[in-house]
Design brief:
Pfam families: DUF4913. This is DUF4913 domain-containing protein. InterPro entries: DUF4913. This protein is mostly helical and 126 residues long. It has one domain. 37% of the residues lie in helices and 0% in strands. It is built from 3 helices and no strands. It has helices spanning 14-25, 44-60, 67-84. Helix 2 (44-60) runs antiparallel to helix 3 (67-84). The radius of gyration is 19 Å and the shape is flat.
């Protein structure tokens, strides 16, 4: 796709999408079942998921047949179920932002040579 074919965005950024559209589409009674943080942008996982939801919406809004159905089924609902979950990224917030200090998932460094650099052009043809 060249610059002339680039899709024009409806929203300038994810925050505009969240504030103007998403919060109205997902109005929920918050409490034990659903948790939301008004400072969602301070949570890395939430920001990444919401940005993904917005970008998918921008693309699928142009499909007049099934675009919005696909957006709900494949993008919005799966991500929002995680985000609104009582154990999701907003678990410590409960109506106001809190510096939820869940540690990152533990990892062990894989043995040397188990993985190779996927960016190496010589390995792409394998």
């Amino acid at each position: 796709m060249d610059d002339d074919d680039a899709m024009e965005l409806y929203y300038p950024h994810v925050a505009a999408f969240v504030e103007d559209r998403l919060v109205y589409l997902y109005s929920r009674r918050l409490g034990q079942t659903y948790v939301w943080c008004p400072e969602w942008f301070r949570h890395a996982e939430a920001l990444s998921r919401l940005d993904s939801i917005w970008r998918a919406w921008e693309h699928l809004r142009l499909d007049p047949a099934t675009g919005m159905s696909v957006w709900w089924r494949d993008h919005a609902d799966p991500h929002m179920m995680v985000l609104l979950s009582p154990d999701g990224p907003f678990a410590g917030c409960r109506g106001q932002h809190s510096e939820y200090t869940a540690p990152p998932l533990a990892t062990v460094t894989p043995p040397e040579g188990l993985f190779f650099d996927q960016r190496d052009p010589e390995l792409r043809s394998l």
